[in-house]
Write a structure and sequence with these properties.
Length: 644
């Protein structure tokens, strides 16, 4: 009996027949070149997802106007772009999937990009008071502007069909130009485009009708909408249902459901603190309001997807990040074993641009956006490789090496594999991270990696084993504060609290305002504990830039829990009963029974230095080189494995 029978039933949207119910939605990639032209890297990325079994692939949005075409994104604002899109369409079709083009004008989403090109203005339905407080250039659309952008959408649709797209999706969510008209929080107009739900949906309806004039009634066309803006005063679910009915009547063949204003909310790309499928109930409500198919999205794994389709809560499921983590997910769950799926952990590291690794990285899939170069070919001359350290970097390096045909031994000084990744797995909200540990263990066993636990590797042991190559992955350890009392009896590490090695008693002060500090403070506050947070910089600052949506999700939770935040505050001393710190030039004292440190990590690289001259080939990966996030560790492990 197949485990996902509902997901793998054929489905229809308008005249388009799809082989299953799994769709890859549009996601930004930065894989186009600076002029917005297609690259080989971009084509390989989409071809790989199509070959993995998704029924339909929707690339990153197509900008319909020149003033929406950002560097490293694709456009359809003139006929010269058609051959580029045709190239992507051909690759997707050859790999066995349908091809959809999403049309969008970026509008207020420029606020999310943080960089407004000099020649651009941010287009808005109306000027809100809070916009006047920023330095960004804004342009309030006139009636003639609206007519012009409607024509831009119509011509872009013509080009999309000419390029070989099987369908068109109109982007009307997350705060883009059309979305900002639909939302009462951003549309304060008093003319025919503002006020009532019908008026606010007028621009979207007219764009849809203009597109229909170009592509015809039988061509598959649908709209992606916000079921909720997730901000006070924004689109509500009842309003979204009414808007969906209006768009259905205007010719939409389906309604794709999303939510959140990306520059304001975090719902549009829900990360690990969110529960599974936070927008599924919204899709279910929209489905009750319309007769056309509904597409659900947002942190939906294979099991939930099957449940959603089987229960009639939606007709299709859009999986974005899970297909980044494992492009073969549809084939794996269809033909099994499902345990072979490399599951997304929703860390959102894929949203970061890494100066070393390039556009986007994935904590569980180092080959993301590098499909043409990886995985590397089998080794020409297999070697005996010793990997030291069983944390994330060591396990991944060992697996990649074994997959290339090397004979690999993995040594870990503790009784279990995982290293600092076990701390992440124990963090409330990150329970799903353990799936990756189990995945690595399963594949290490499959590729016959010899694992030795409870063994500390020394220079003498390496000389005795005499491997052809050694990969050191000894990780990092938490930093202690160098202040009076910084290692006193009331001071503990955040890692130890998370793993349950120590208990936080009484009044608690967390020192450190990055992810670990924020997570510990939230966890304790949710238990009703009296907790404050002190950090020497702003929240989330002081170090490598944190992924924005995950940070905003945690920061919002801290504020909701009313955790006192002492920002730009330097700890000067820790006593048995208090933390003394400087803030704004003044000295303050906070009572504290337990002080939890989350002030960073330092590399544990002593062994790498000792092995110089002993190992014929010596490499280091992961935090022992420098502390970094899991996506960087994965990519570095893959690069080292490719060199040996």
């Amino acid at each position: 009996m197949k485990r996902f029978p509902s997901l793998f039933q054929p489905g229809r949207i308008g005249s388009l027949q799809l082989k299953n119910r799994l769709i890859m939605p549009a996601m930004g990639t930065q894989l186009a070149d600076a002029e917005g032209r297609v690259t080989d890297r971009l084509v390989s990325y989409y071809r790989t997802r199509a070959a993995g079994g998704a029924a339909m692939v929707t690339p990153q949005f197509a900008a319909v106007s020149r003033d929406s075409a950002l560097p490293y994104t694709m456009a359809l604002c003139d006929d010269g772009h058609v051959p580029d899109w045709s190239r992507v369409a051909d690759a997707v079709h050859e790999a066995g999937a349908a091809f959809c083009i999403q049309l969008m004008h970026i509008g207020m989403l420029l606020l999310y990009s943080e960089v407004v090109p000099e020649e651009f203005s941010i287009l808005v339905p109306s000027m809100m008071p809070w916009l006047k407080e920023t330095r960004n250039p804004y342009h309030e659309l006139s009636s003639s502007d609206i007519e012009r952008y409607m024509e831009d959408f119509g011509q872009a649709a013509r080009r999309a069909r000419q390029a070989g797209a099987d369908a068109i999706e109109l982007h009307a969510c997350h705060g883009c130009l059309i979305s900002s008209f639909m939302s009462p929080v951003t549309n304060r107009r008093t003319d025919q485009y503002g006020g009532s739900v019908e008026n606010r949906a007028r621009f979207a309806r007219m764009v849809l009708e203009r597109i229909r004039q170009e592509v015809g009634r039988e061509y598959p066309l649908w709209v992606r909408v916000n079921a909720s803006d997730d901000v006070e005063g924004g689109v509500t679910l009842d309003e979204a249902a009414e808007q969906a009915r209006i768009l259905e009547a205007a010719g939409a063949d389906a309604i794709s459901v999303s939510g959140g204003l990306e520059y304001w909310s975090t719902l549009s790309i829900p990360c690990y603190p969110y529960p599974k499928g936070p927008m599924v109930s919204m899709a279910e409500r929209i489905k009750k309001a319309v007769q056309v198919p509904v597409i659900a999205a947002g942190k939906i794994d294979a099991e939930l997807a099957e449940e959603v389709i089987a229960g009639g809560r939606a007709d299709f499921v859009a999986m974005g990040r899970p297909l980044l983590a494992d492009p073969e997910l549809p084939e794996k769950i269809h033909r099994g074993p499902v345990e072979d799926v490399r599951r997304c952990i929703y860390c959102n590291n894929c949203l970061k641009t890494d100066p070393e690794a390039g556009p986007g990285s994935c904590s569980v899939n180092p080959y993301l956006y590098r499909e043409a170069r990886y995985p590397p070919p089998p080794a020409k001359a297999p070697k005996r490789v010793m990997v030291v350290g069983g944390g994330l970097g060591g396990m991944q390096a060992a697996l990649f090496l074994a997959q290339r045909g090397h004979r690999v031994s993995l040594y870990e000084k503790k009784a279990q594999l995982g290293g600092q990744w076990n701390v992440a797995c124990a963090t409330p909200g990150k329970e799903g991270y353990a799936a990756f540990t189990q995945y690595l263990k399963r594949f290490l066993d499959r590729y016959s990696v010899n694992i030795t636990l409870n063994t500390e590797v020394t220079r003498g042991l390496v000389a005795e084993v005499r491997p052809d190559a050694v990969v050191v992955a000894t990780g990092a350890v938490p930093v202690w504060l160098r202040v009076p009392g910084g290692t006193g009896g009331s001071v503990v590490q955040g890692h130890d609290v998370i793993e349950g090695k120590v208990q936080a008693e009484g009044k608690v002060i967390v020192v450190g305002g990055r992810f670990i500090g924020m997570e510990v403070a939230i966890w304790l506050a949710e238990q009703g504990r009296e907790v404050s947070l002190v950090t020497r910089a702003g929240l989330g600052e002081d170090g490598i830039k944190l992924e924005k949506l995950s940070f905003k999700t945690l920061a919002r939770r801290l504020l909701d829990l009313r955790v006192p935040l002492y920002l730009n505050s330097t700890v000067m001393e820790i006593t048995d009963k208090a933390v003394i710190f400087s803030m704004g030039g003044d000295i303050h004292t906070l009572p504290a029974d337990t002080v939890i440190l989350a002030v960073g990590m330092k590399s544990e690289n002593k062994l790498a230095q000792e092995l110089e001259g002993v190992a014929a080939e010596l490499y280091s990966v992961g935090d022992c080189v420098r502390p970094r996030d899991a996506a960087e560790v994965a990519y570095q492990a893959a690069r080292v494995a490719a060199q040996i």
